[in-house]
Amino acid sequence: MSDLPPATTAKKPEGFLPIHTNAFDRVFIAVVVFVAIHLFWMRFVEQDLSLYVATVISVIVGALIIARG
Amino acid sequence: MRPQSVGWLFLAPTLFILFVFGVLPFIYVLVVGFFDWNSFAADPTPRFSGVNNYRELVFDTGYLMSLWNTLRFGVFAVVSEIILGYALAQLFMRNFPLKGFFRTIHTLPLMIAPVAVGATWRLMTVPGLGPIPYYLDKWFGIDFLISRYPQQAFFTTVVMDVWHWTPLVTLTLLAALSSMPKEPFEQAQIDGANRFQTFWYVTLPMLKPAILSAVFIRLMDAMRTVDEVWMLTGGGPGAATRYVGLYIWRVVFPKTDYGYGSAMSLITLYLTIVLCWLLYAGLVARRDLRRTE
Question: Which parts pass through the membrane (chain B) (predicted)?
Answer without folding.
Answer: 7-35, 73-93, 105-124, 153-177, 198-220, 263-285
